[in-house]
């Protein structure tokens, strides 16, 4: 029972400076370890699940360079990255039926690129890049390979 007669006692200091320091260093180390762990897990996931390294042929690699050299990404998005003037091409291989008919999809994609621009009034146009047969085939290799990247269900529909 406290009353007016009780002598005044200073409050007990529970949260000491050393406790604060321990929380600071302990917390920093703990979250740094978590961060390193998550980074390693992401890397592991990319290398083992997301990247299909076994089928990354010379054609796929050359095709990526053709893609970059001609700045296709200035109009197109690929797996969501890029410009929104022209269709997403991360899944264009699937849209062209590549899963059921790889030869047909290859021929279709090459014919499409060779037929541009269409000049159809009111339709966005894709320029003619005058690519060689080798470059066109390499591009298709790259687009085919890209379509197999595990995007965890993105885009949600084929038109993506
Ligand atoms: C100046 C903008 C522009 C650039 C650069 C461009 N494209 Fe296109 N591309 C388009 C447009 C616009 C369309 C859609 C045209 C249409 O539907 O008539 C298209 C369509 C396509 C399609 C068919 C997509 C589908 O879903 O049917 C493919 C494949 C394609 N482009 C590949 C490429 C590649 C490969 C490059 C680089 C070598 C490239 N594009 C560069 C504008 C561009």
Secondary structure topology:
Layout: H1 17-50, H2 58-69, E1 77-78, E2 81-82, H3 92-95, H4 102-115, H5 133-147
Antiparallel strand pairs: 1-2
The structure holds heme C.
Heme C binds at residues 67, 70-72, 74-76, 85-87, 89, 92, 95, 109, 112-113, 118, 123-127, 129, 139.
Domain Cytochrome c: 58-147
GO molecular function: electron transfer activity; heme binding; metal ion binding
Keywords: Heme, Iron, Membrane, Metal-binding, Transmembrane, Transmembrane helix
Describe this structure in words.
This is Nitric oxide reductase, NorC subunit apoprotein. Keywords: Heme, Iron, Membrane, Metal-binding, Transmembrane, Transmembrane helix. It holds the Pfam family Cytochrom_C. The chain is mainly α and 160 residues long. The chain folds into two domains: 34 residues; 85 residues, Cytochrome Bc1 Complex, Chain D, domain 2 (Orthogonal Bundle), CATH 1.10.760.10. Helices cover 49% and strands 2% of the residues. The protein is built from five helices and two strands. The chain has a two-stranded antiparallel ribbon. Strand 1 and strand 2 form a beta hairpin. Helix 2 crosses helix 5. It is elongated. 15% of the residues are buried. The model has no long low-confidence stretch (mean pLDDT 92). Bound molecules: heme C (HEC).
């Amino acid at each position: 029972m406290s009353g007016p007669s009780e002598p005044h006692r200073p409050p007990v200091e529970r949260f000491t400076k050393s406790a604060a320091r321990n929380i600071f260093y302990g917390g920093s180390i703990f979250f740094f370890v978590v961060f390193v762990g998550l980074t390693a897990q992401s890397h592991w996931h990319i290398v083992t699940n997301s990247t299909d390294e076994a089928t990354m042929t010379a054609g796929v690699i050359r095709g990526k360079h053709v893609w970059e050299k001609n700045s296709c990404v200035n109009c197109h998005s690929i797996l969501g990255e890029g410009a929104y003037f022209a269709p997403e091409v991360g899944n264009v291989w699937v849209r062209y039926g590549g899963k059921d008919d790889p030869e047909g999809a290859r021929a279709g994609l090459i014919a499409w690129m060779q037929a541009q621009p269409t000049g159809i009034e009111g339709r966005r146009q894709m320029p003619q890049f005058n690519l060689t047969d080798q470059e066109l085939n390499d591009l298709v290799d790259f687009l085919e390979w890209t379509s197999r990247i595990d995007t965890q269900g993105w885009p949600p529909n084929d038109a993506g």
